[in-house]
Amino acid sequence: AGMKFFLQYVGFFFAFFSAAFLIISTWTDCWMVNADDSLEVSTKCRGLWWECVTNVFDGIQTCDEYDSIYAEHSVKLVLTRAMMITADLLSGFGFLFLVLGLDCVKFLPDEPHIKLRICLVSGVMLLLAGLPGIMGSVWYAVDVYVERSSLLFHNVFLGIQYKFGWSCWLGMAGSLGCFLSGSLLTCCMYLFRETSSGRFHSAYPLRKGYSSAATVVTNVHFPSSQTATSKMYAVDTRV
Question: Taking the model in full, what pTM does it have?
Answer without folding.
Answer: 0.71
